[in-house]
Amino acid sequence: MFLILVINPGSTSTKIALFHGEKKLFSHNIHHDAKVLARFETINDQSDFRIEAIRGILHQEKVALEEIDAFVGRGGLLKPIPSGTYIVDDDMLHDLKVGVLGEHASNLGGIIAFFLSGKFNKPAYIVDP
Fold first, then answer.
1. What DSSP character marks residue 105?
2. DSSP sequence for 25-63
3. For 85-128, how does the pLDDT look when each residue is reduced to its tens digit (9 = 90+)?
4. Helix, strand, coil shares, percent, the chain, to 5
């Protein structure tokens, strides 16, 4: 079974979906209180908060992180690249964290995917339309 966790952070929500190949097993839209998010100095500082929210949903759905084979985040504000799917590497992670082209919640997609993948030595990707 090949499981893919897709992560799409927005300004006040984090959408996640779990796929078995091309079949969607479930999806959730995790709403975050704007007042709670405002406590974070930068959007990047929200990553641990959002990771815990994702872990909560996975626990609720009885899915262990180590069962997931790949983590995919929404592409963030990066240097111009052709549309496609990219592995999140150290250089991309740096660009997402410093906001090379600006700070936006979508930058958290690759950051969160990279963090979760690294805990279990699995691949992390972003998809940039």
1. T
2. EEEEEEE--HHHHTTSSSSGGGHHHHHHHHHHHHHHTT-
3. 999 999 999 999 988 888 899 999 999 999 999 888 999 999 98
4. 35, 30, 35
* Residue 72, H or E segment: strand 70-74
pLDDT class of 1 with cuts at 50, 70, 90: low
The answer to whether 101 touches 78, Cβ cutoff 8 Å, is: yes
- Give this prediction's pTM: 0.93
- Encode 83-95: b = buried (16+ Cβ within 10 Å), e = exposed: eeebebeeebbeb
DSSP 7: E
Q: How far apart, in Å, are the Cα atoms of 58 and each of 5, 17, 71, 82? A: 10, 10, 13, 32
